[in-house]
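Budget justification, computational time. The allocation requested in the original proposal was used primarily to generate structure tokens for proteins on the priority list. As evidence of use, we reproduce two of the resulting records. The first is shown immediately below.
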Amino acid sequence: MVPLVLEKNLWSSIPGEDTIMNIPGFWLVRRENLEYFPRSSSYWDRCMVGGYLSPKSVLEVFDKLVAGSINWPAIGSVLDYIIRPVVPSETLTLEVQYETDRRLYVDFLPLLVMEDGTSLIAKPHRLAAERHENLWRQSFRVAETARLRALDQEDGGCRYACLKAAKAACKLNPALHLLNSSQLTNAILLLSEKEGDWTREALADRFLQLLRALVGHLEAGRLPCALHPKVNLFCELTEQEVDELGYTLYCALSDPEQLLRTAAGP
């Protein structure tokens, strides 16, 4: 994440649930004091759309500054890697090939940290319609990861190991690629509120329980954010995607070891 600096007296943030769109977890960033500080007083006024800071416009400026002015292939040759921007991409994404059959993808995301500590990233709403184009996504990644690690440190638990296995399984199974790290982390945090045994010996049982919990959340069409329950982490999935994910996970319940073997690799 790449921090951006906004003038405090020129911009303010509005929670998505306080707008007509009513989308918790997303925010609008509004331009203020135009009567005293007219347009062009702020560097970011060039990215203003309809009185709000547009994450899409910020990404376009960011892409021109970073992707357009840096010779990534030359940097890659110095490091003995192949580095190239991914096109097309909703964000600035670099593909790093460090072995013949191994690649790493790195996302560069503009980040706003508001006065109250809220972190907003310029990652568009997945089902972005016209009315969603100015929405900034609230990021809980740092707090979620810290909470998960803190719980493991308290009891020597396997939550992070369970997360790694689940992420690998979702990455290697095309039918589960829509489940992201934040959703899996929150599912584990919510499960931790009900389940106390996270010893290493219980990893397989907790993995199976995680699959069941995800099926339940998909059936309900809602996965609450463990840190901010108003936020539904499934709000960007279509009904068809929810059905397909639920079916795949339900089938996996009959042979969860296969997912674990897949995640562990050959």
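The second record produced under the same allocation is shown here.
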Amino acid sequence: MQHPAEHSPLGKTSEYVSSYTPSLLFPISRTAKWAELGLSAETLPYRGVDIWNCYELSWLTPAGKPVVAIGEFSIPADSPNIIESKSFKLYLNSLNQSAFDSREALRTVLEKDLSSAAGAPVGVRLRSLDEVAEEGIGRLPGRCIDELDIAVDGYEQPRPELLRCDAGRIVEEQLYSHLLKSNCPVTGQPDWGTLVVDYQGPALDPASLLAYLVSFRQHQDFHEQCVERIFLDLQRLLQPQALSVYARYVRRGGLDINPYRSLAEVAPDNRRLVRQ
């Protein structure tokens, strides 16, 4: 079956368009991937957001002077569409030689165009380099499980059967791993990320979680769907009182994508990690 992104600019040679062109944005419906996971727009068991950070954002003042900023775009996890990442990058590039009356004028244009593509309101922040530098590098809460000694014999598809928990011991903890890797479903290129699990429920066996995450290593899917699959597999196993799963992916083409999924409303810490 052809992937919906096959018709997007992803994996194809693209001309550099340097004047404002919102038609470059390529939305992809979430419906097919939700259906693969047994979900629909009406039955989503999570709340959340996909936070995109753009480090290559520039435009012109009315006097022709270039301006640079870091963009933060928040797309609701229940929006009808995701935005294909290369088209997002091409669209942002089209601002480079375009003049805007003010930073707020540009923010308003971005909000309108991205909300139209996503099919839901998209939050937009334009931040100065000094502001972002002041925040520094984020440090993750909880325990890193990457040094656990595990044996791995499969990398082709996610293996939820590897996950184990102790139903007789209820805990509240945060676990994370920097070893998440999957591949783009169109180009086959690797996507690298850090995965965080924050939960309250039956104690999850950390070694089984690490083996499960490594099983994604050759799996082909977009960032958002990988996180949703992990969330659902953990929810089925643990039946937790609280559960949040999020990934901080390494940037590509000046963009990083950070999907958050949770049983509760989320207020993500969007400070970049050291690999971002």
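A brief technical remark on that second record: The chain has a mean pLDDT of 94.
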